[in-house]
């Protein structure tokens, strides 16, 4: 299943993806928020262990399942839709923290295809902050950017690094890259 109207925002944590996604949503574009934060909130609320600091294998499995559901739920959308992370982010995460990349992960990455252009948000130390759900140290955030770039390119995507601009300038830059204003 492929949808050329689906654009991925990926990169390390705290690099401004969600802020730009929100701006695009406010401009009227369809957006799909990152699944990781919802999983973390739900697991904390229900005292579950599928957390990046506890049961990482289960956490990755939930990220994959939720990402596939997000893709399937939006499959009918004929206009640009921006995703804060995609299915391949789960594989990048698994490789980063050295947990098994399952056959199911590989199959999902091949079966569910987004637009070939992936917007890669570089690590930006000046805006990086930690919070209750984002606990990565600066160095892990940097490594995440590299791991995700490598993973998307491995699956045949073209990563384009989003310049370090204000959020509104980043949103306009992205729209210019896909010829939408």
TrEMBL record:
Residues 7-170 form the NadR/Ttd14 AAA domain. This is NadR/Ttd14 AAA domain-containing protein. It comes from Parabacteroides johnsonii DSM 18315.
């Amino acid at each position: 299943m492929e949808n050329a109207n689906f654009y991925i925002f990926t990169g390390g944590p705290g690099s401004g993806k969600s802020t730009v996604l929100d701006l695009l949503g406010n401009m009227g574009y369809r957006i799909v928020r990152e699944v990781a934060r919802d999983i973390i909130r739900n697991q904390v609320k229900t005292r579950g262990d599928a957390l990046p600091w506890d049961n990482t294998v289960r956490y990755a499995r939930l990220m994959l399942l939720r990402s596939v559901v997000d893709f399937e739920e939006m499959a009918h959308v004929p206009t640009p839709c921006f995703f804060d992370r995609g299915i391949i982010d789960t594989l990048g995460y698994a490789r980063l923290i050295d947990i098994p990349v399952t056959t199911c992960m590989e199959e999902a990455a091949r079966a569910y295809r987004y637009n070939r252009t992936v917007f890669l948000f570089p690590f930006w130390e000046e805006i990086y902050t930690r919070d209750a759900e984002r606990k990565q140290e600066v160095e892990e955030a940097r490594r995440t950017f590299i791991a995700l770039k490598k993973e998307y390119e491995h699956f045949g995507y073209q990563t384009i690094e989003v310049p370090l601009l204000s959020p509104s300038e980043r949103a306009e830059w992205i729209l210019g890259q896909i010829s939408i204003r």
